UniProtKB/TrEMBL annotation, chains A, B:
Organism annotation: Salix dunnii
Signal found in the keyword field: yes
GO MF term (any one): nutrient reservoir activity
Keyword terms of this UniProt record: Glycoprotein, Signal, Storage protein
Pfam families: Acid_phosphat_B
Protein name from the UniProt record: Acid phosphatase 1
Role, per record: May function as somatic storage protein during early seedling development.
CDD domains listed in its UniProt record: HAD_VSP
InterPro entries documented for this protein: Acid_phosphat_B-like, Acid_phosphatase_pln, APS1/VSP, HAD-like_sf, HAD_sf
Family (UniProt): Belongs to the APS1/VSP family.
Gene3D superfamilies: HAD superfamily/HAD-like (3.40.50.1000)
NAD recorded as keyword: no
């Protein structure tokens, strides 16, 4: 028998990951201890490992071309690098989003790599895919810190790191990222896969051949 | 600490529900006892309840028109009515799909209603939505048994029950259901919502305003 609070958090997590709950601002406060146990107790890492295994199986079915136009897209926050230590101070998302606090955190450049995704990244680069990192972080304020953070965590060899620039201000992540993908396709890239922790990374236009949703029960980006 | 098998099943379930695992034929056999516990122990029902709560919140934001063209789409198998008792005999999906066995089961017309979805169905009908039930079941062989089964389980008052006819033979569920939705939109219906236990119910064309994925860790329909 699963305790009631744990059961509620399981339902919450399932509903979030299947994109049934949208535009949510905070994690229900009764989930706090279960969210912490999920993120720190090993299940989050095991969920990531299984998805990366699925991605690797899929990659091994791809027959890449030798024109250098086989592309993959990875999101940055909570895909390549983790904000878990920041969100620990925000009660794993039970507290509302704090833009100034998050900016201060991101400026420190201390986000650790998510090991399973770092492994995937290196595998993609080694196998000749052009990897594009697309982030909703603002170029002007967070560009240098983010570039350095990714580098010091081992994300080396990507094709391009694409930030949100002033022209996209006010656009949703889904609209902004769709437009970036559209431009890449126009350059001739074949987007084989797209990996993100938010549905807004994976929906919209020019979606590529496959999308992979990584778990994130802590926050929602529209 | 979550036992290893339970942890693996949680990762499996998450990967399936977020559409990260595709074209799978059987549930990994090490998941058997955990799949049973999930389906029979209450968590499956609680997951359904939470999603139906989300659907009801969404419905209450809709301002329906008085032209009678506000539509909802529900899938049938493991959305309106349950095949759990059949799949219990197939080790909750650890055994491969058995077309003859499933046909014999469906012909009995003994699938119980899924209570949360029956409640949703009645709410939709009561509130003036036109409800279309779209199923991949074959009209010729299973039409009468399915119609009777839905009726005896309380699914009364829908606008149309749409079966797969000979002309769609060999088409994927996603292609067939997309074409049916396209025809409904052509008739002038506004599809406000679409509810199914398979991603193939919810992907393709003419998707409607919102899709809701119900849990189903037992089988995959392409």
């Amino acid at each position: 028998m699963i305790p009631e609070g744990a059961s509620y958090f399981l339902s919450w997590r399932m509903a979030v990951e299947a994109n049934n709950v949208r535009e949510w601002r905070t994690v229900p406060s009764q989930c706090l201890s279960y969210a912490e146990a999920y993120m720190l107790g090993g299940q989050y890492d095991r969920d990531l490992d299984m998805i990366v295994d699925q991605i690797l199986s899929y990659i091994n079915e791809i027959v890449p071309s030798d024109d250098g136009m086989d592309a993959w897209i990875l999101d940055v926050d909570d895909t390549c690098i983790s904000n878990l230590f920041y969100y620990r101070g925000k009660r794993y998302g039970c507290d509302p989003f704090d833009p100034a606090g998050f900016k201060a955190w991101a400026l420190k450049g201390g986000c650790p790599a998510i090991p399973a995704v770092l492994g995937l990244f290196k595998y993609l680069v080694r196998n000749g895919f052009k990897v594009f990192l697309i982030t909703g972080r603002d170029q002007e304020t967070l560009g240098q810190a983010t570039t350095d953070n990714l580098h010091n965590q081992g994300f080396i060899g990507y094709e391009r790191l694409i930030f949100k620039t002033a022209g996209f201000k006010g656009q949703s992540a889904a609209a902004y990222k769709s437009e970036i993908r559209r431009r890449l396709e126009k350059e001739g890239y074949r987007i084989w896969g797209n990996v993100g922790d938010q549905w807004s990374d994976l929906q919209g236009e020019c979606l590529g051949s496959r999308a992979f949703k990584l778990p994130n029960p802590m926050y929602f980006v529209p």
